[in-house]
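Lecture 7 notes. Example A: sequence first, then its structure tokens.
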Amino acid sequence: MSADFTEDAAAAPKKKKKDLGSFFKVTTDKAAGPPLQQDQAITFELQSYLQTETLDAEEDPLKWWKESQRIYPRLSNLARKYLCIPATSSSSERVFSTGGNIVSCLRSSLKPDYVNGLVFLAKNL
């Protein structure tokens, strides 16, 4: 039974990652019409979005995009994908810096478990 499972897993096609351009890629569908109409729809959606009122700083942008998904379907896909990414890496840089301060020339033979514990204590006390 395990041999069948590995054959099925190997035969399954791998999922292709989507990039930024794939959200605006034109699909050829006979009912959709020529690609020019798709380009016009994208342009109209972007211009309409740029003319909307600016969101208040106190409001949740993810909630706004969820509510506006019907009006801006392509842009809401982009927002859902890219608004979840943290803007900075400063928290991870602080942890690496703390680790560098703990592991010095005199303390270079510390075991990794002890270093992890010391970094945890330094950041949480």
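Example B, a different protein, same format:
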Amino acid sequence: MGAPPGYRPSAWVHLLHQLPRADFQLRPVPSGFAPQEQEYQQALLLVAALAGLGLGLSLIFIAVYLIRFCCCRPPEPPGAKSPPPGGGCVTWSCIAALLVGCAGIGIGFYGNSETSDGVSQLSSALLHANHTLSAIDHLVLETVERLGEAVRTELTSLEEVLAQRTELVAAARGARRQAEAVTQQLQGLAFWRGVPLSPLQVAEDVSFVEEYRWLAYVLLLLLELLVCLFTLLGLAKQSKWLVIVMAVMSLLVLVLSWGSMGLEAATAVGLSDFCSSPDTYILNLTEEETGLDSDILNYYFLCNQAVSNPFQQRLTLSQRALANIHSQLQGLEREAVPQFPDAQKPLLSLEETLNVTEGNFHQLVALLHCRGLHKDYGAALRGLCEDALEGLLLLLLFSLLSAGALATALCSLPRAWALFPPRNPSALCSGSHPSEPLLHAGLEPVTPTRSFPGGRRRSH
């Protein structure tokens, strides 16, 4: 099947489409897009479950590391004031991991924007297609009503005026039959009337879901940004309580990052399967939902020389009928008006109706051509399979960087926390700096008190 103009599956689509897939029993699953099949659903769930496996392994690693750090540390010698060796490297590794997390947040914001742009392009294409289909229905309805009104009023009046001339009445009745034939042919052009599937409703549903998806990712990005910044602040200020709170928040964001990674991976794989060959799935789904003939759908979705316009016969018959009506009215105007002056008014009204009908007919010919709707189809695929897919891959990279950075920070924070100087409550009450060590009376000599003349030292 021919691809829409300007759309070609990207390298990312080909790469993701070639990845092997398996169901819950680890049996191979074809990579064709089939979301209604249970095996394909299991394959996507298995892709998402890989992120859950990564989350479990990272939590086990962090737990083992923290248990080893807390329970297997060698006892410090009494009176030791120097920090343990390698403490500075641990602190800087934590800072570097948090900075990498901040860089991932920037990638996440860009990916979230790209995904939103792609979905917005899809919604715009659906709205434009809905406008085209609505315009076709409106033009057909307006033209049919105008011709029906002309048949009921002007042509009836003209037949009454020309009742004395049988041949002129026959010509008027011929124009009536041609007008009724045009009406019948035009009614078959409104192919989307009564179809339960509305592009407008689909666009609104897509925009609604995308609005909440975009907001959820913005909140996740801001939450991780705050965690990284406040953790860096806690390290700079050597605030133990702030580091502890941020460690708990980092654990929460770590779980959210792995969860979003699984959702992004499954969505990207499924989207690549769809984008590798979208025509077959879209044609089958649209035919099932709308009940339209496959010839009509093939014409608009493929729009190539091998598929002919399914409305060409109706358009040709309508054009011939309009030309016949026009010639019959001109003949009546030449022969009937000199003998029946009252026939001039209905004839002029019929000419005006015929001119409007021909104008609407030319607009219908342009709208019914496959170029317009096929262009919207190509724009929707480009938005979904290029911008949205690239945005999803950037969000996947953000989640990966976020998970790695937070796991590293959670392993480094306890060691960095252990390097903070102690804060003695008595030192705080005496007004000295919290990080200053206290002076013990038994370790330092007492300075003798200077006696003034005439004074005696009192024994304690």
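Note on Example B: Confidence is low (pLDDT under 50) at residues 425-460. Residues 87-152 form the longest helix (66 residues).
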